[in-house]
Amino acid sequence: MAFLAHVGLLVRDLDRSRRFYVDVLGCRERRSVDRPGTRLLFLESGSSLIELVEKAGRPYPEVSCPTIHLAFQVDSVADEIARLKVLGLSLDSEEPIPFGGKSIFFFSGPDGERIELCEPLE
């Protein structure tokens, strides 16, 4: 049976994206790989892996990627919104969205990727 190993995300600036995913979202660096023309960084978020991919010397596609969002589970969406505001992040809104008796919230990462914060539904 196949299972999801990781999600790959093309980024413009690996160092900027590393700071966002580690400092803002709390991911942990697992390993990095530098190859000619490509830098990779694997990050852990719980039991999930995110692979950040920077392609040097190639234009970043200006068409939005088909991935609609990356979701990170948090204990309290409202607390996270307050923390993001303290960090000075530009947010589309400041209100959580009710969802199944809990809350979710969307904002953008450094390359415009959509990030969802969600509370556990159990």
Provide a descriptive summary of the structure in words.
The strands form two sheets. Strands 1-4-3-2 form a four-stranded mixed β-sheet, covered by helices on one side. It has two helices and eight strands, in the order βαββββαβββ. By secondary structure, the chain is an alpha/beta fold. It has helices at residues 14-24, 77-86, and strands at residues 7-10, 28-35, 38-45, 48-55, 70-73, 97-99, 102-108, 114-118. The mean pLDDT is 86. The protein is globular and about 50 Å long. It folds into two domains: 1-58, 2,3-Dihydroxybiphenyl 1,2-Dioxygenase, domain 1 (Roll); 67-122, Roll (2,3-Dihydroxybiphenyl 1,2-Dioxygenase, domain 1). One of its GO terms (molecular function) is metal ion binding. This is VOC family protein. Residues 3-120 form the VOC domain.
What are the main properties of this structure?
single chain; 122 residues; alpha/beta; 2 domains; four-stranded mixed beta sheet; VOC family protein; metal ion binding; VOC_core; Glyas_Bleomycin-R_OHBP_Dase
